[in-house]
Amino acid sequence: MAAHVPGTERHLTLSPWCFAHTDQAACEDLSLSDNTPQRRTAAMRSCDRILSGVRPATMRERLAALDASGDLDGLPDFYGDGPVTALEERVADLLGTEAAVFFPTGTMAQQVALRYGADRTGNRTVAVHPLGHQEVHERHAYAHLSGLRSTWPTTVPRNPTADEITALADPVGTVVIELPLRDAGFVLPSWSELTAVSAAARAIGARVHFDGARIWESVPHLGHALSEITALADSTYVSFYKTLGGISGAALAGTAELAAYARVWRHRYGGMLFQQWPAVLSALAGLDRELPRIPDHVRHAPTVATALTALPGARVHPQPPHTHQFRLWLPHPAQALNDAALALAEEEKVWFAAGWRETDVPGLAMTEITVAAPALEWTAEDIAEVGERFLRRAASHRG
């Protein structure tokens, strides 16, 4: 496919059951004037039962959790030493890489990875999916900051195949694989597909970069250890606040050469902060507490998804889910569903699902479901019973 020039793209028209493209600001616009993020957060915190997501923590609760970890008696970091070094070594060990470098944001980490690929290969074209994080959520930073351009191996809502990488018309420096591909419904390739696409990328002289913001929950579906997965890539980015519940932060893992390059460019991009110990300690806590729980969340996701598909007019993708997250569609306007979610939370202290977005099909809305610790208490019967009450409320708000 021809190289992509950022800013000239058109939104893809895909099946509404597979993709509904809306940014966060547009999502917020769907709410009634008094159905604000602050009100929804307060309502969710007051709920006794939560199906999708986790109860938002206050700043005091987050500080108390750090205090309970027993790590606050040490000295803070100074420009990347101390606890930052400990986290980097922990991540490199988990992923089986020579080194890892902490970044304040994943966007910064990924730009450094793509720049490194361009510098090392001499090729400034990146193969990335049009639904990938770089295209949808990073404002094309790879182009504006590093002068790179993208080519799309496929527009099908899944990661590219080995054949599609082999068929690229343009030479590329880096092939990006997002695990899972969030904006296609948190979908993953099979292990054989992943190994094949990695080999195909290297056969055309390209580096392989894994956007592994959610790689932690990809392990059950792929059926291999984290270190075996990352061995298929030349670099891997991981997030500490997605899934692990950290305050913020990310890491870029790979060779010692990549790490040395990343430290230089982290400083140049403004990521060499004086102290980052709150984010770092929360990331370490997430690795200790949340990472071991993820397989339970993934195992329960099919139960939740199957129960939701039994609701009138509901659709789920993928079915079964590949991770503990998936997409749900219901035949109601997004505003009615968001208002129903808020009313159910405030009046019955039950959080079902919010964040509904309009799709290309009038009257059909979509949201993302996250099966975390609170959802483990829900049976299929619980979901059916609460779902019926939720839809009754949606119908009344629609009217």
From TrEMBL:
<keyword id="KW-0663">Pyridoxal phosphate</keyword>
<dbReference type="InterPro" id="IPR015421">
    <property type="entry name" value="PyrdxlP-dep_Trfase_major"/>
</dbReference>
<comment type="similarity">
    <text>Belongs to the threonine aldolase family.</text>
</comment>
<dbReference type="InterPro" id="IPR015424">
    <property type="entry name" value="PyrdxlP-dep_Trfase"/>
</dbReference>
<dbReference type="Pfam" id="PF01212">
    <property type="entry name" value="Beta_elim_lyase"/>
</dbReference>
<feature type="domain" description="Aromatic amino acid beta-eliminating lyase/threonine aldolase">
    <location>
        <begin position="79"/>
        <end position="323"/>
    </location>
</feature>
<dbReference type="InterPro" id="IPR001597">
    <property type="entry name" value="ArAA_b-elim_lyase/Thr_aldolase"/>
</dbReference>
<dbReference type="InterPro" id="IPR015422">
    <property type="entry name" value="PyrdxlP-dep_Trfase_small"/>
</dbReference>
<protein>
    <submittedName>
        <fullName>Threonine aldolase</fullName>
    </submittedName>
</protein>
